[in-house]
Design a protein that fits this description.
Helices cover about 10% and strands about 35% of the residues. With about 250 residues, the protein is mainly beta. Helix 1 runs antiparallel to helix 2. The longest helix has 12 residues, at about 185-195. It starts with 5 loop residues before the first strand and ends with a strand.
Length: about 250
């Protein structure tokens, strides 16, 4: 997408069980503006940790159609080029008025915002002129004309379940490696989202504490996005630092 461009997207929750009859969702983005599409049964609410920023969620659960529930929405890219991340969660439910039998999951989706590239096309015309006296000579007067064409990366397909674009894995331990597999990629984002959404999760990998403050919180998630999608390197923690605690 280009800076300031608006594109349409679709968030889909697919059930894995016949007893699950409907679904709900919640989606946020690192920057830019989320927008509603009429008739989708969704609403915008202010992000609880960032004043003035909004996330998208359902107005009420939506009935499954062939095991799926989907919501269309728009996103307007920021004015600055970069990689921005949409991340959200879906919950498939059986409408039993309890959480028994319900299932939830989360996913991330990276969008590249690139500035248009101007390509100049040069056209040269030659106009010979002949002097009638002395030996004939010719001179060329070249008049270039430039035509600029704008190009940008392809807009991501606006339908289907969002799929993360993983960065290449890096060898060795690294801050933000939430699953301790030796690399930084979208799997670490998914792991950290699960850690934050479920305080009862088993003790996480110490490397999940990306900013070395001995707590695992949204600051670590934001830093992890930056590390995977080309941001500055993570800070170096003091050797022997204790395991981080979930905030």
């Amino acid at each position: 997408m280009q800076p300031g461009e608006t594109a349409a997207f679709r968030f889909t929750v697919e059930s894995n069980g016949a007893s699950q009859r409907s679904a709900g969702f919640n989606l946020a983005v690192t920057a830019g503006t989320l927008g509603l599409v009429e008739g989708q049964g969704a609403r915008l609410i202010e992000f609880p940790f960032r004043s003035g920023q909004f996330e998208l969620t359902h107005s009420s659960s939506k009935a499954n159609n062939n095991g799926r529930a989907s919501w269309d929405f728009t996103w307007t890219a920021p004015g600055e080029p970069g990689v921005y991340v949409l991340y959200g969660s879906g919950n498939s439910v059986n409408r039993s008025s309890s959480s028994a039998g319900d299932r939830s999951t989360s996913d991330v989706y990276g969008v590249s915002v690139v500035a248009p590239t101007a390509t100049a096309t040069l056209t040269v015309t030659a106009e010979p002129s002949v002097t009638p006296t002395a030996p004939a000579t010719s001179t060329r007067r070249d008049t270039p004309t430039a035509t600029a064409t704008r190009s940008a990366s392809a807009t991501p397909t606006p339908s289907g379940t969002p799929t993360p674009t993983p960065a290449p894995s890096e060898p060795g331990p690294a801050r933000g490696d939430a699953n301790c597999d030796g690399g930084l990629n979208a799997a670490d984002i998914a792991r950290l989202l699960r850690i934050l959404s479920d305080p009862g999760t088993a003790q996480p990998c110490e490397l999940a504490d990306a900013d070395c403050d001995e707590e695992i919180d949204l600051d670590d998630l934001n830093l992890l996005f930056s590390l995977i999608f080309g941001g500055p390197p993570a800070p170096t923690c003091e050797p022997g630092a204790g395991a981080a605690q979930l905030d």
